[in-house]
Here is the input.
Amino acid sequence: MKGQIETELGTIVIDNEVIATYAGSVAVECFGIVGMAAVNMKDGLVKLLKKDYLTHGINVKVDEENKIIIDFHVIVSYGVSIHTVSENLMDTVKYKVEEFTGMKIEKINIYVEGVRVID
Here is the structure.
């Protein structure tokens, strides 16, 4: 289901890919996030995605109440608190995506798929 906003002039429909792209760009700006991860379920491999492929590490769903659910598959920096980085990511994405779309976020799930040492 796509996100919809009803106005007096008509309906605004927001594609899930648009929400995923924006959420991905917000996420990689957060402290401790190295990038999005692509998980190859067949081989169990995880690889760091380039900035052009941010949406591959993000899954966006809109429920029947028009609320957004976002799943992030991320790679975090070595030596940072995963809990703190995750809370920062959730708070930042929730605020910015709600402002961007005008829709509410129901849930944000974060799957830490790997750790990288940053030079």
Notes: The helical segments are 16-27, 82-101. The chain has a mean pLDDT of 86. The CA atoms of residues 68 and 92 lie 15 Å apart. The longest strand covers residues 105-116.
